[in-house]
Each structure stands twice: as C-alpha cells, then as structure tokens.
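Protocol step 4 of 6.
Sequence for Aminotransferase class IV (Geothrix rubra) entered exactly as in the expression construct, tag removed. Do not edit the line below.
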Amino acid sequence: MFALFGPGAAAWPAGHPVPVGEGPRTALRVAGGLPQHLAAHLSRLEDGAGALALPAPWISGLAPAIRAWIAGAGIPGDRALRLALHGPEGLVSARLEPLPSTPFPYRLAPLPHPMGDLRGSALARHKGLSGPWRQPALAAARSRGAEDALLLWPDGTLAETTLAALGLEVEGALILPPPAGRVASLTETLEVPTWAAARGLDLRREEIRLDQAGEGRLWCLNAVRGFWPAILL
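Step 5 output, structure tokens:
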C-alpha cells in the first residue's frame, strides 16, 4: 500500500511518480494497526529536512492522517511502514509492507565502512543523508555468505550494520557504540533502556573493538525488526 501526505499531496498529479533519490527517511513497525513511536519518526524526518535547510514544520501534523490511513487499510498482523520526505515537493510518501524476515543465525561479515570515517559528518546521523552506500555494502556481505555487514571505522572499532544499530552484551552490561557517524537510532533512545533493564544489564556507551565482539553476545536492533542476536562470520 502506498500513499502521499503533506501540503503537496492534494495537488500531486494522479499516477505521477514521486521523485526518487537520497533524502530523509525512516521506517517503523505497525503492530496491531498502530504505528509504533510515529511522532518520534516524524520528528526524525523533520530534523533531516532541517539539516538540508528545507524546513518542514508541517511534518509533525501528519500523524493523525497516517494513523487513519493505516486503520482504514484494515490489514491484519504486523507491518513495516516506510516514510520518505520529498521536501521540495512538500510530500511525505508512505509505504506499508510485510515485515522482513530475520534469518537465524544472523551472520555478520566484518567490512570497512565504505564511506571511510563519517564520525565528523553532521549529516550522517540523519537516515538517508550520507549517500547510497548501504545496498552495495549489504551486497558485499551477502557475497561472503553473511546476512549483513558489520561495518568498521578506520580505527577498527564497530560502527553499525547496513540494516541496524549494534549492541554488545558482555559481563552484565550492554555496550552501545558512540553515536557519532551513524544514524541516530530511535530504538536506542526509546526501547533499549527498558529492554536492558529487563535483562538486568547496565547500559554503557563506548567504543567496541572487533576482537571484543567475539567475547560477548552481539545484538542488532532497529525500529522494524526489534532486537535480534547476531554472530560473526
């Protein structure tokens, strides 16, 4: 299912394709017909627009219309909702899809980050603004027999995967890599503290070396799939 929202939606020609390109985007889970943390994801789009000097304060007001569209679809079960901002056109596109499957074991192939070191980039924290590097990196990992790539900064510390943020469970703690250079994960902010507390884990945020990753349990996390374990290839 696909729909357009925003001030440009009413005037958008029927059947006319929406521009394709890199821009602010986000994805979230729809559980029982309810989009999870929708307001926070719309704020993510608005922050991305601001980073591109395309202020779009109208984005936060889209939540009721998006919820009504999902409710009207009447699709049972959980779904993935993918939102993308087309700022110059005044549009947010919404696509409702089946949830992606998560293989087990979920194997990660360590690879250098294809963009080098993004830790000094202000755009890197916004989903969709650091360039179209994720699909080639994912393809490279899968060519090695992995499900995803474990991306490393030039100093050998862990950044993220192409599809998820990372956590390392070790010695009663859950360690998260510093946020610089990667997409600001809403799951880290909104769900990890409760998840870690339920498991009796202390939260720490520090650099993780690749050799440390084999000493504990790796977790992947994102807003669509939730939390799932991973292993090194």
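Step 6, annotate. The longest strand covers residues 79-86.
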